[in-house]
Amino acid sequence: MENNNKIIRPDKDTYYWLIARTVATRSTCRTVEHGAIIVRNDQIIATGYVGAPRGVKDCLDLGFCIRRQKNVPSGSNYEMCRSAHAEMNAIINAARAGVSLLGGDLYLYSSRKTENRDVLIDAYPCLLCKKMIINAGLRRVIGNSKNGTLRSYFVSDWVEDWKTLEDLTQDKERYDAGHVCGA
């Protein structure tokens, strides 16, 4: 991009988030697109998108979503979904490659598919993904809001918040049906 002969470069968070947006185009969910990349020491070390396990038919192959057929509300009964979340797949792909995630940042892109276009939704990990992100030793999660701005979360803040909770569904910033990290 140029502005009066001056080249405008995106900041690093935007740059990496834009790459996560491209990764999301590989999503095999009929309802949402999610893409995740993990960056450590300014290097991309893993990517993941919402999709079925390797070698297994996905919802695009089947032509339907079993959760939608059974009227399962968003944010519940994830075990019925054929797909794994983008964050899970990025963490799994790093493990397959033998790459440490300690101290890395996860960039997350999320949108809901509609008839004419994709609509941004708040990119925020579900409780299961948050647990995996904490245990993987990631430092920060950066995701889009539904208005297109980027939001940054420090994983250490989640850990501190959770120390006082008996019920993790009382999490301060919680996903809801509008922006869950799975279908």
Question: How would you describe the overall organization of this protein?
Answer:
This protein has 183 residues and is α+β, with helices and mostly antiparallel strands. The protein is built from six helices and eight strands, in the order E-E-H-E-E-H-H-H-E-E-H-E-E-H. Strands 3, 4, 5, 6, 7 and 8 form a six-stranded mixed sheet that branches.
Question: What is the compact description of this entry?
Answer:
The chain has 183 residues and is an alpha+beta fold.
> SS-based structural class?
alpha+beta
* Tally of helical segments: 6
Give me the strand/helix succession: EEHEEHHHEEHEEH
Q: Quick one: overall form?
A: globular
Overall mean pLDDT score? 89
Helix content: 25-40%
Q: What percentage of amino acids are in beta strands?
A: 15-25%
Give me the Rg, rounded: 17 Å
Q: Are there runs of 5+ residues with pLDDT below 50, and where?
A: 176-183
What is the terminal separation in angstroms?
Answer: 35 Å
Task: Give the biggest beta sheet.
Answer: 6 strands, mixed
Give a count of the beta strands, DSSP E runs of length 2 or more.
8
Helix and strand arrangement:
Layout: E1 2-3, E2 6-7, H1 12-24, E3 32-40, E4 43-49, H2 59-62, H3 66-69, H4 86-97, E5 105-113, E6 118-120, H5 127-136, E7 140-144, E8 150-154, H6 155-162
Parallel strand pairs: 5-7
Antiparallel strand pairs: 1-2, 3-4, 3-5, 5-6, 7-8
What labels would you give this structure?
alpha+beta, 8 strands, disordered C terminus, two-stranded antiparallel sheet, six-stranded mixed beta sheet, 183 residues
